[in-house]
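Purpose: get a first structural picture of the assembly so the mutagenesis plan has something to point at.
Setup: two entries, given in the order below. No constraints added.
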Amino acid sequence: MKGALFRRRLRRGLRHMRSALTVKMTLLYGALFVAIMGMSLYATRNAIDHYADRTVRQEMAIGSALFARMATLQFRQLDQSATVLASDFGFRTAVGTSDAPTIASALDSLKRRFGIDHALFVSVDGALAGDTDMLTETESSQLYDALDSGRRQGIVGWRGQSHMVAAAPVRAPMLTGWVVFSRNMGPKELAQLAQLSAVDLNPRLLPVAALPAGLRTTKSDDITTREWRRGSDDMLVQARPVENLVPSAPRMLVLEYSLTDAMAAYAPILNALLAFGLIGTLLALWGAFVMSRNLARPIIALESAARKVSSGEHAQVKVETRDEIGRLARSFNRMVNAVEMRERQIAHMAFHDGLTGLANRTLLREQIALYHQRAGKEGFALFCLDLDNFKAVNDTLGHPVGDALLCDVAARLAQTCPAGFVARLGGDEFALLVDDGAGHADQIGRAIVNSLAQPFHVNGHRIVAGASVGIALAPQDGADATMLLKNADLALYRAKQDGKGSHRFFEPAMDAEAQARRAMEVDLHDALRNGELELHFQPLFGLSQNRVTAFEALLRWNHPVRGMVSPLQFIPLAEETGLIIPIGEWVIHEACRVAASWPDHIRIAVNVSPVQFRSSTLNSIVLQGLARSGLDPQRLELEITESLFIDNVEATLASLHSLRTLGVRVALDDFGTGYSSLSYLRSFPFDKLKIDRSFIVDLLAHEGATAIIRAITTLADALGMETTAEGVENSDQLDILRAQGCGQIQGYFFSKPIPAGDVAQLLQKLDQDRRAA
Amino acid sequence: MRNLSFLILAGMATLLGSPASHAGDIDLKIVDAAGRPVSNAVVTVRPAGGVPDGPIRFPWGTTMVQENVAFSPHVLIVPVGATVRFPNHDKVRHHVYSFSKPARFEIKLFGKDETRSYTFKTAGAVALGCNIHDQMSGFIKVVDTPFAAKSGADGQVRIPRLAAGTAQVTIWHPLMKARNNEQLLLVPVPGNGSVSRNISVALRTSP
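Result (structure tokens, whole complex):
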């Protein structure tokens, strides 16, 4: 329990610490300040050190100069006193007469008069008088030697004490001796000198011999300033030369000063500086910490907000400042909002149709799943609908009008069934989901058909769209969205097949039929590969030539299980699935190959499906077929139907002309049944018109039929086109056709379609018949 | 008068005695430590066999003149008992004194053309000074031998007609660094001819 609490605290502490920026900045500024303070302290200490050192040296120089000045003055005073005494006739008399008591008293008297510490008389023969007991024998003889060698003043040490000495010779008239006056130069006297300088230099006159060993020089007259440091106290000691009376026992003026003491005077400054430094450092640390924390906090907030946003949550940061970080926070918030808005847009786009704003297939499926979940006993109904004439609208009036129409359809659907959920599945396909709609689905279906049958007014165009509706009911027609949609689609397909503008309910049989279609589609796909397709050829007989002029290639499918499958069954399927393209290609190639072996005057006619005709590959397939077989293009006749002209006359004409440039012939199949506009006959010079079998069948039943044949042949002749009558089954028909000027006949009367292998035989037989006739 | 006859007698005796006993000369050259000739060095000789009895007289007289605020001559050799006259030829007055042991005296303030005299009864060196003029310095060397002379500017001094044998020669100079400013040496005097010596003496640089 306690451990857990501790861990939690530790974790919280670490999280604070994780703001490494704060720590870094605090440490950096702290370290910088400490460094600056350290340097400043060091520099100050150094400067003080230097200053103190220089001051001490200056003081020492001053002290030494003072000493020199004082010495000069005192030497002069002593010398004057000594000279006065030495030249006094009475004294000279006393000296001349060796009157010792008189000499002593004279010395004493003058000593007192001038305030001199000691007085001596040194006779020229070395005898001393006066204060003789203040110096030793050695010092006496040193004194004599100094005087004898002409020295007159200087510092001298007597019995360990320093003295300032001046001597004056006594002449009577010859040199008889010297009057020697001295002043004490002990620490006490020098201390008075010290009072004149700012610092206590503790001046002393010391024998050179007493100085530290390393500083002594062997040459006694080599007396220059010397300096050394002493002990832990860091004493600066200077020994300065003075005028010595006895060169063999020189003394120096020694000045010393404790640099430590000198520094101690500055200690308060340093201490204050140190204290300020410490306080400053603490302040700097605190300031850096506060500043960096203020800096880091919004960054941490941004980071955690960014983390939230990346995990899909909505997050905004508080804008606290107007600086760069504040701007960043504002930008971040704006960015989050923009991202979320775009997300919503994308989500909307993912689930909605961009044009109409309706739900798309995905959303519809979700909705279906939702309905499934909450469907009551009554269930719900799915309506799939498809506009009947949308493609024509798009092609003739253009896409903008088509799009506008779709929007109007969407609006009308919503209006027709306000309670329903409307979706656009793509193109002109819509779906409507109605909860609890199973009961009156029929009614709704009819309502939709009726509603969409009403004309639309789009951009000034009056459009009758029309719609077919397929209905699937849940749950019985599908337990999930996929199944339900598929079944509604099947119902729609049925509605379309059964004539447009109606509605159909899904029935299980539809599913079976659809599956059968699917199976045949698969089989057809394999048929080409497995060689189940073959061509049969039906001859076209030229009446004027009295011989076979051409064969029409007809496709047959011999399925190993299904047996012979009717072209009426599989050709539409092939066209629907697009398989007609490869199959058509095979047909052209095969027909050309077979025809190449026939006599040159016999042509081959091949049917071209509208789907095939519209594909861009037809030209190249024809070229390949011709090239591969070596067939003369003039012997290939492509048969097309009138229905090609319904959709796009211009494009159809362009394609026909490009085919014509290949040199192949073009025939119009099933003439007279479909669109039957004569304008395109004028637009394109077909090589042949094939008169539909329905007219031939009518020949014997209706009087007018002959007139129509007559009209067609006359028209064809006038336009320079051949004519072929299809479906000729008896000789009566043949007679009429011949009488009406028809060029060729085709039909069972002459020959049914035969396999390629039988062609040669047929031709041979016909040849024999002709010769026999 | 008595003095004069004594002098003549002594001279005759000297002249007469010379062929009978052997006699030689001493030639000295007095130089200082640097080898420069030293003048005013007084050489006195006590020949082997001692100093002959009789009065002593020197040809340079016994007068110490004060002239141009100086004693002239600077050094005067007189025999013991001689009375030296101190004529003042200066316009200023002088106060001649001596604290030297052989003759301590004072001749106080006598003016121009005044003459004082003093009789020197003891042999030795007498330093003369003037209490008025400290720079005045003169010396009277009182000797008890006839064989005495002072060196000239060339430092030469000749003592003639000395009895053969070892003679005690004393050299005195006012600045000599020695006890009583003199030094003693023994010189063998030949029976005939002369003996020459170079004598180096140490002098004080200043008085």
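The domain at 53-259 of chain A is CATH 3.30.450.20 (Beta-Lactamase).
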